[in-house]
Structures are given as structure tokens and as C-alpha cells.
């Protein structure tokens, strides 16, 4: 029983009211704040009994709802601006030392690239043989010297030096300007189809290629351009190789010369040259007749008639 009910019971008993009436269908559990104090019914003064002793009635306790402290929301954090990064300054980036950057990477064991081979030091060029030494050579020495010659830059690009061919003693000498790609490959002066046509031209004037005519080039190594194509020899290359030609003329004893192609004619004469006349070469006055190269005649067969005239001129000059 609550304090209120106890106090009400005491109050009613003191007033002689008797039984204490309570609320029907009272909820089993009412919240304390919802309990309504039953007010005493008014009693007429005449009927009101005089209490024997006036007891002070204690004031009902005042329910004080405890103040509920509302949670104070935490202040929203102020937006923090993102940190400002200092601008990147290129000068502050330490540069890689050049000495380190230029060190070539060592080839891996499984690296089959040949790029490293290009960086191998070029072996020093052997000392060139002198004019005097060439002038004293026999055939064997001459061929060996040509094969390993370093007298001009063509030695750096040649695949093979090309020596002359034919008899070691010959009354005629046939001269071309320089080895072609095929000559270099076959290591034969005026090789292939051009060589066959040359032999036929010589036979046409009653010469035996195997016994009468020595065939050679003014330069023994193939001149080639940057594109790899054949090119005529330069004056420097002609000059460097000239001692070998002079020695071939001496060793063969040739008394008549024919040049094949305009570059051969100009290269031998070291200047202007012309077809249709007998030119003279060197201190001995070697007779020279110029005509077309067999390769030219293969491309332009209509020039064979002119070539036939050149051959007849040379034959007449020799006889
Ligand atoms: Fe020697 Fe003559 Fe060849 Fe030049 S062209 S490297 S001079 S053989």
C-alpha cells in the first residue's frame, strides 16, 4: 500500500468513515505520476465529527521529477582544410649522376643480342704496304698483299679483295674499274654473265682468254655507297691501288690494254677518256682503247656494234 493509501486509511478511520473504498478495475500498475489521489468526500459540518485530537497532516510528498540532463551534442568539428602541399620544384629533385646513368648495362647470360658486339673496339688497321715493296713483289706476294691490303678505306668495307685472273704472262690486259658485288662474291674479276660476254668479245678478235689476256680491276676491293650499291672508285682509291696495277703490267708484260666501261677509261687515264681512238698510258706509252663494259652491252645490246668497232681498233693498234 502506498503512503497515500495509508494516509487516507488513517484519515478515514479517524473520521469514523469506516471501510475504505477503493477504485474498481484499477490498473495493475499505474505509473506513479498517474496515480490520482482520491479526494475526501465533503462532509457537512453538522455531521462532521470533531476529532479528538487534531493531528497535523503531513503534506503529501511532492514528486519531483529529476531533471534529465539533455545530452549536449558535441560541437561539430570545424572543417579542416586539406594541407597545402608545397609546389614541386624540379631543382629540388636530385639529379641522377651522369656517371651512373652512362654505365652500360652488363649483358645477361641469356641475352642473345649482338648489340654489344658493335661496341667492341675496332682492331687497329695494319700498316699499309709501301709502293716500293709492291714494285718488288712476285705473283704470289702480290696476291697475298692484295688480299690483306690496307692502303685505302675500301679495306674496311670489303668482303673479299679480288685479284686479277688469267695467264701470268699475257700480251693483252683487260681492265674494269672495280669489282662488282658478284665479282666480290665469286672473287673473280668480271664474273658471271658479263665475264662470259667479255671472253666472247676477245675471241671475236682472235684472242685466247686463257693465254692471251689478263683480266683485272683498277681497284681490287669493291667500292660501295651508303645504300650498298656498287659505285665507281674515287681518285684516292684509284691512286692507292695503282702500284698493284703497275706491278701487274710489269709481271704480265702486256703491250696492249683495253678498258671496259667509262669509269675504267677515266680511272686509268685519271682524267678525260674517249672511245674511238688509241690513248697512251704511262711513261712507256702503253696503247689503250676504251669500249663498253659487258654489263652495259647486256643492258643495251644495240651498242654491240660500237663495241665491235672498238675491238677492231684495238686489234689494229696491237698488230
Ligand atoms: Fe688496297 Fe687496292 Fe683494296 Fe684499296 S682497293 S685496300 S689499295 S687492294
Q: What is the rounded Rg?
A: 64 Å
**How many helices does DSSP assign?**
11
Biggest sheet, strands in spatial order? 2-1-3-5-4
Largest sheet: 5 strands, mixed
Bound molecules: iron/sulfur cluster
CATH H-level name of the largest domain... which superfamily?
Uracil-DNA glycosylase-like domain
Mean pLDDT reading: 80
CATH architecture of the largest domain: 3-Layer(aba) Sandwich
User: What count of domains describes the coordinates?
Assistant: 2
User: Terminal Cα separation, in Å?
Assistant: 167 Å
CATH-defined topology of the largest domain = Uracil-DNA Glycosylase, subunit E
Unreliable runs, pLDDT <50, ≥5 residues?
Answer: 28-40, 42-47, 49-54, 86-104
What features would you describe in this structure?
With 319 residues, the chain is an alpha/beta fold. It folds into 2 domains: 3-54, no CATH class; 131-318, Uracil-DNA Glycosylase, subunit E. The chain contains 11 helices and 5 strands; from the N terminus they run αααααβααβαβαββαα. The chain has helices at residues 3-15, 98-101, 115-118, 131-135, 139-147, 181-186, 192-204, 235-252, 262-269, 294-299, 304-318; strands at 172-176, 213-217, 256-260, 278-281, 286-291. The chain has a 5-stranded mixed β-sheet with strand order 2-1-3-5-4, with helices on both faces. A hairpin with a 4-residue loop joins strand 4 and strand 5. The protein is rod-shaped and about 185 Å long. The model is unreliable at 28-40, 42-47, 49-54 and 86-104 (pLDDT under 50). Iron/sulfur cluster (SF4) is lined by residues 146, 149, 151-152, 154-155, 161, 219-221, 237, 240-241.
